[in-house]
Amino acid sequence: MSARIASTSLDLDNKWSYLKTRGDAAWQAYPSYLPVVVPRILQFLGEREIKTTFFIVGFDATRAENREVLAQIPAHGHHVGNHSFHHEPWLHLYSREQLTDELQRAEDAIEQATGVRTKGFRGPGFSVSSTVLRVLGERGYRYDASVFPNLLNPLARAYFLATTNLSGAEREQRKALFGSMADARRPVKAFWWRLENDRLLEVPVTTMPLLKMPIHMTYIHYLAKYSRTAASLYFRFALSLCRLTGTEPSLLLHPSDFMGREDDRDLGFFPAMDVPVAAKLSLLDEALAAMSADYDVMSLEAYAELVADRELSELEPVGI
Length: 320
Fold this sequence. Notes:
- The protein is an alpha/beta fold.
- It has 13 helices and 10 strands.
- The strands form 2 sheets. Strands 1, 2, 3, 8 and 9 form a 5-stranded parallel sheet that branches. Strands 4-5-7-6-10 form a 5-stranded mixed sheet, covered by helices on one side.
- The longest helix has 19 residues, at about 95-115.
- The radius of gyration is 18 Å and the shape is globular.
């Protein structure tokens, strides 16, 4: 076992949630790829003996067609977290009462489907606010994982908005999608949020130390469209910076990292969804092998439990 530790997590965003964020009315039919992609993910990770934390959307857990595959997640030794009930990347606009209801409905649905009560949370679209953090603390959550300290956040949001036909009100809702420049200035390493009567552990989605550039797998797949070699070198350089700075990387995955153009033509707007699935799985295999060579790779929840007793920096939840 390596003396270094790292973690992985997977936001189990469904097809309908991406269509909803784009303002595509087709989302209201709740199209789902979970019965196809979840078994593929479990097999892929199982063959490599890697455990992760699946952040599940509560609404998906209420659907009968999803319950069997969702129950397989903890059965295979993975952890589950709360990814909200409605998957709306504007939680920062919710009232305290709305947030309480949103979290509780997701908690109940996920527990009914998986048998597990969630202890960790990631906001959809990295949506977070001081109210979200305080409600999480009140509900006894052990950690949040919504901070995405990425300097490209405004560019990613601008590109997204430029490729949609959203109304003015819908654009206003999504103005914090992917995070803000304030988020980009936050630490890459785990830290504590200082709340009124308690504190809450934050495990940010790791970006490249010092440079604050994204290293989640969807971005690596996007780079590989132009050069597989450059994408691989970029990821390995990021791991080198993590080692040099003592950063314990937390790698973010999505269902699309396990899917290709053969699986869903409707998601052609999503980065690298026009790439064959075999190419994406090959690159993912290489990235996880590189991490595993230098780190003891565990689920995000296991990592949060491991570092919960550390003396980490503390921040006030202001400006979010």
